[in-house]
Amino acid sequence: MTSKNQGSAPIEKDEITPKHIYDSRRKFLKQMGIVGLGAALAGCVPEAASTSNPTQTEPTSVATLSGLTDELGNPLTDYSAITGYCNFYEFTTNKENVDELAEDFVPDPWSVEVSGLVNKPQTFSLADIMEKFDQQERIYRMRCVEGWSMVIPWNGFPLRQLLEEVEPTSEAKYVAFQTALLPEVMDGVNSGRFPFPYLEGLRLDEALNDLTLLATGLYNEPLRPQNGAPIRLVVPWKYGFKSIKSIVKISLVTDQPYTMWNTIAPQEYGFYANVNPDVDHPRWSQGTEIRIGENQRRDTLYMNGYADEVDYLYSGMDLTVYY
Ligand code: MTE
User: Containing H/E element for 307?
Assistant: First the structure.
C-alpha cells in the first residue's frame, strides 16, 4: 500500500477542502442571483458551472439522449457541464479548467491489473474489457461531497462482472482501487499537496451490488480525460469522491483499504461516504444540494435516492459512526 504522504509537504487542514471553494462562494451566489440567501446556505457550495463551455465540442449522440430523465424524472445534466466542470485533482483543483489541462492525457494503450486475493489474477487491456463486457446505459444521479450534483447517462458494466472473472477467494473482504500516476501529464501531482496516487475502496458486497459500475463512456461517447478516461468507478449512492477515475489497479484484500481522502481527513471523509442528509460534513450541512443547471437548492435524498437497492448493505450499522 502506498505510504501516507510519499515524502511530499505535509497537508495543512486548510488544504483539505481547497480555499477556492470558499472564495468562490459569493461569486457563485451572485451568479445564481441568490446573494441575499447566503447566510442560510451550507458552508460549502459549488462554483458556478459553465453549462456551455466553448472548449467542448458536443457530439451528435448528445442530442439523441437529451430528452431522457432518470427514474425519478430528473433531466440529464448538459454534456457541456459534465465535461466542463470536473474534479480531477491530479490535474488541478480548479473544476473549470480540468478539461484543458487534461488534453495531453492520452489513455491509450491502457490496462487494468486485477490481483490480490483472487484465484485468477489478470491484466485486462481496454480492448479486452470492451470485448468481454457488454456495455450498458445507466442514468445515475451523482452527488459530490461539496454540495453539487448532476444526472449523468453512463455507459459501462457492473464491476461484479469483472470480479467474477478473477474469482475472489473467501478471504477477500474489500476491493481497493488505484488511479494512474503520470506526473509528466498530470501536473497537479507535482505540487506535493496530496498523497497521490489517488486510492479508493469498497467493501466486497458493495462492489458486487448491481448499481456499482465500471464506466467507459457517458452520453454514448468514450469518457473524456477529465471524466476519468478510459475507465472509472461509478457508485451513485456514495459521495463522488468514491468514484475513482482512470483506474490502473484493482486489488482484492482482507482489510479495509487506505483511501486518499479517508487517510488525509478521516473525520471529514469517511470510508463509507454514503450520501446521507442526516450526517453533516463537520463543516457544512449535507441536507441540500445544487443540481448543476438549476438555480435553487434541492433536498438531498438518503442514499442519493437508491436506498431500496442498497439499504441491505448497512443493516445493523450505525451510519453516524460508519459515515
Ligand atoms: N478520481 C481521481 N483519480 N482524482 C480525483 O480528484 N475526484 C473525485 C472523483 N474521482 C477525483 C476522482 C470527486 S471529488 C468527484 S466529485 C468525482 O470524481 C467527479 O467526477 P466528474 O468530474 O466526472 O463529475
Answer: helix 307-310
CA dist 17 → 12, 44, 302 (Å): 10, 9, 23
Contact 240, 232 (CB under 8 A): no
CA gap 67, 75 in Å, rounded: 7
Whole-number Cα distances in Å, 72 to 68, 151, 152, 295, 306: 11, 11, 13, 19, 11
Task: Give 148 Cα–ligand 1 centroid separation in angstroms.
Answer: 12
Ligand 1 atom, smallest distance to 144 CA: 16
Predicted confidence (pLDDT) per residue in 248-260, tens digit: 999 999 999 999 9
CB 162 within 8 A of CB 258: no
- Give Cα separations from 144 to 57, 123, 216 (angstroms): 25, 31, 20
* Share of residues in the chain with pLDDT > 90 (%): 80
Ligand 1, atom 12, lies closest to the CA of 244
The C-alpha cell that represents 227 in the structure block: 471524466
The CA 228 to ligand 1 mean position distance, Å, reads 8
Instruction: For ligand 1, atom 24, name the residue with the nearest CA.
Output: 86
Ligand 1 atom nearest residue 85's Cα: 22
Biggest CA pair distance of the chain: 59
Residues 153-173: tens digit of each pLDDT = 999 999 999 999 999 999 999
The C-alpha atoms of residue 38 and residue 256 are separated, in whole angstroms, by 39
Read off the DSSP letter of residue 93.
S
Place of cell 480540468: 98
User: Per residue in 243-276, is it b (16+ CB within 10 Å) or e — as a string?
Assistant: bbbbbbbbbbbeeebbbbbbbbbeebbbbbbbbb
What gap in Å lies between CA 304 and CA 143, rounded to an integer? 7
Q: What is the C-alpha to C-alpha distance for residues 32 and 34, in angstroms, rounded to an integer?
A: 5
**Residues 6 or more apart in contact with residue 311 via CB below 8 angstroms:** 303
Distance CA 222, CA 111 (A): 16
